[in-house]
Specification:
The complex is a heterodimer of chains A (about 400) and B (about 300). Chain A is α/β, with parallel strands linked by helices and about 400 residues long. Chain A has 14 helices and 16 strands. In chain A, the strands form four sheets. A six-stranded mixed sheet of chain A has the order 10-12-11-14-15-16, sandwiched between helices. Chain B has one domain: Rossmann fold. The chains are: A alpha/beta (about 400), B alpha/beta (about 300). Strand 9 of chain A pairs parallel with strand 4 of chain B, so a sheet runs across the interface.
Chain lengths: ~400, ~300
């Protein structure tokens, strides 16, 4: 950890170098949230460590709660958020799984907690490396999920998190995800924003109702009989739908501030692509590298990199894929459905509704930190070309398995 | 801080747990909650927390709440952590000048949410020293889910997961001593109480717990008519006999010092506590005298330990 770049305002216009965890810590420093409960788990542990160190040195005045478990970390985050405090936490893997029960409650109580998720394989066998099984398992918990390819994106996403979560049309918790070690620990170039514009962009948390509001009491977390419960769930579902517009608006405003505009996904050489990978996270950098080489050879290869997985931009993704001949949907997470992974399930459904009958298949890759190399991706595009010429294929296959 | 106990003034205070909730007649949990909240000084604000349980599902059923103060329930295992988060937010917002009122933080859990599934969360909140009170209304079983045994259930009690039967005498184990576990956290205040006379013991302990800076724990024996199987009118007599038999001693631990609140002049035999409760009915069958003797020996042993701790 380099103290200088983490604890002080960046010099305007001068690129810096840091890891994804340091990038998130820098965004936290700039936003200075009110409360952070956290329990350590690899590879997200550094984030609460950085925050605690910044508090210890007077850099920020966030209240840190060193809870005794992730279940308590999410519970304390909910108590703090309901009380009117801007709240965050961080976790990975089994830590996220241990929060499971509370993830649903946080979303249902409409508490705009932000969580830095450093993606790591769920145990079975225990493994500390990157895959998306932790946050993918929480995809139906009612949290907004935004994924990053690299340290720059996770920093940018974190700055956008509170304006999305706390928007009055949304009021939902947000996970800001990055790949464990590959993004969280690898040091890369990054352009940080000056402190003041970031503070102004994040603004202040001003909830309409909260436990400590003057001259008003509030009760949170009722027992709701069937007569009322379904309406609460529909209202929550509507908020998730409204989040789409807010995410786009915040991504646009962020672009006006930084020059980096964000949408639901990034298309790389996508417009005229015949062979398209759909993927999430750090592997997209590797895929882009393969595409550059293929394009040089005249192969119309492209990438659709999903940034926002919840809410799922189904129509937009289907529209962006309308010219593709062959689509490889890449999951860094097993679904154990005997049908493939979660990204494929949602993308396939989107294609079906759009009456898109492109050849589409699911590739399981990179589980538990299995390395993904440019050659693997080149092989995948070669397979897509063969499929376009009529080769038979499995709709659910693994990439990079040992023989 | 300690004021003279004025029964009339206290009973005339506005209830912070409003009537109209759906708890059973003869329920100790409601009496505990209502009277602990009476110990909040008039005009003081509070955030009330709650573990999932009878109290929660019966006092905050959408769209009605029985609480006059702000209230939060999130789940079963985490009343300690949830209120700890709210208390931390209070300090954070006060530090930043965003709020100026003074709030007290009090959370309630049954013995299931406190002795068992919520023990870790409670321990964490107490160890970290949040300025809050955790109140356990101990009715000695998981009553909300249908009278299953807990680690607070007394020996030989007939519960739905330790049914007394042809080859079983009810719960084989003895009960956990949670107040002692909390005292081992070296928090500033631990109190154990129940409903005696004009509630002076409960009131004064609740007031100390609420107004002592730092983490405080209050254990309140709170009988359950469904689980204990008594006539609702017997509730006060049962509480009294729990104390007079030394099954449920009244004590405090203030800054590590153990203080006995009440020492019966004539310690009554345990049968006085057991006889009004259907859950112990099988102990009175001919041939089961040895069970009551064993239970009595356990109560005696714990009472002697407590006398030693209190240097009585």
């Amino acid at each position: 950890m380099s103290e200088n770049r983490l604890y002080t305002e960046p010099v305007a216009g001068i690129p810096d170098r840091m890891s994804g965890n340091e990038a998130v810590a820098n965004a936290i420093r700039q936003i200075n949230p009110d409360v952070m409960p956290a329990f350590p788990i690899t590879p997200s542990t550094e984030i609460p460590q950085f925050v605690a160190t910044m508090i210890s040195n007077g850099v920020i005045d966030t209240e840190f709660i060193p809870v005794e478990s992730e279940h308590s970390s999410m519970s304390a985050a909910m108590g703090a958020s309901a009380a009117g405090a801007r709240t965050l936490t961080a976790t990975s893997s089994c830590g996220l799984a241990y929060m499971w029960e509370m993830l649903y409650v946080a979303a249902s109580d409409r508490l705009p907690v932000v969580m830095a998720v450093v993606n790591r394989a769920l145990t079975g066998p225990i493994n500390i490396n990157a895959d998306h099984s932790d946050s993918m398992g929480a995809r139906d918990s009612g949290w907004i999920q935004i994924y990053a390819e690299n340290n720059q994106e996770v920093y940018d996403n974190f700055i956008q998190a509170y304006p999305i979560a706390e928007h009055k049309d949304v009021m939902l918790p947000v996970m800001i995800c990055q790949d464990g070690f590959i993004t969280s620990h690898a040091v890369e170039n990054i352009t940080l924003l000056p402190d003041e514009p970031v503070k102004a962009f994040a603004g202040e948390f001003e909830p309409e109702h909260y436990l400590l509001k003057k001259d008003e009491t509030m009760a949170v977390g009722p027992y709701a009989v069937s007569k009322y419960c379904m309406e609460a769930k529909k209202a929550q579902a509507e908020a998730m739908k409204r989040a789409k517009d807010v995410i786009l608006e915040v991504g646009k405003q962020f672009g006006e501030m930084s020059g980096r505009t964000y949408g639901f996904f990034e298309g790389y050489e996508l417009e005229d692509a015949e062979y398209v990978c759909v993927a999430i996270g750090s592997a997209c950098g590797t895929i882009k590298e393969a595409i550059r080489a293929l394009r040089a050879k005249g192969v119309k290869a492209g990438l659709l990199k999903v940034r926002v997985f919840r809410p799922f931009p189904a129509e937009e993704i289907a529209a962006a894929l309308q010219h593709a001949k062959v689509i490889a949907i890449m999951d860094r997470c097993e679904g154990y459905s005997a049908q493939g992974g979660p990204l494929a399930a949602d993308v396939m459904a989107a294609l079906y509704r759009a009456k898109n009958q492109a050849e589409a298949f699911n590739v399981l890759y990179g589980l538990s930190g299995r390395d993904v190399q440019v050659e693997d991706i080149e092989g995948l595009y070669a397979q897509m070309q063969q499929i376009a010429e009529g080769a038979a294929y499995e709709t659910y296959q693994y990439m990079g398995l040992r023989e | 801080m300690e004021q003279t106990f004025n029964f009339k003034e206290i009973q005339n205070r506005e209830d912070r747990l409003a009537p109209g909730h759906r708890m059973c007649a003869g329920c100790g949990g409601t009496i505990a909650t209502r009277n602990v909240l009476k110990a909040l000084h008039p005009g003081d604000k509070a955030v009330i927390g709650n573990a999932t349980g009878c109290l929660e599902v019966s006092t905050f059923m959408y769209p009605y709440t029985a609480y006059e103060d702000s209230y939060i329930h999130t789940a079963f295992a985490n009343a300690g952590a949830t209120l700890a988060g709210a208390e931390t937010a209070y300090r954070a917002l006060k530090k930043k000048g965003k709020i100026d009122d003074t709030y007290k933080f009090i959370t309630f859990g049954g013995d299931g949410g406190t002795y068992d599934i919520g023990l870790q969360s409670l321990s964490g909140a107490m160890e970290r020293g949040h300025d809050m009170v955790y109140v356990c209304y101990d009715n000695g079983a998981y009553m909300n889910t249908g009278i299953q045994r807990s680690s607070a259930t007394p020996t030989y009690a007939d519960t739905t997961t330790t049914p007394a039967g042809k080859v079983s005498n009810g719960k084989p184990q003895t009960r956990k001593d949670l107040a002692q576990i909390m005292a081992a956290h070296h928090i500033p205040y631990v109190g154990q109480t129940t409903f005696i006379g004009n509630m002076k013991d409960l009131y004064t302990k609740a007031e100390k717990a609420i107004y002592t800076p730092g983490a405080a724990f209050l254990n309140v024996l709170a009988p359950c008519p469904r689980g204990w199987r008594y006539e609702t009118g017997d509730l006060v007599e049962i509480c009294k006999s729990a104390v007079e038999t030394c099954y449920w001693p009244l004590f405090e631990v203030i800054d590590g010092k153990w203080i006995l609140s009440y020492k019966p002049k004539n310690k009554l035999p345990l049968e006085d506590f057991l006889k009004r409760q259907g859950r112990f009915k099988h102990l009175f069958k001919p041939g089961n005298e040895h069970l009551i003797e064993a239970f009595q020996a356990e109560v005696d042993k714990r009472w002697e330990e407590l006398l030693f701790l209190c240097q009585e």
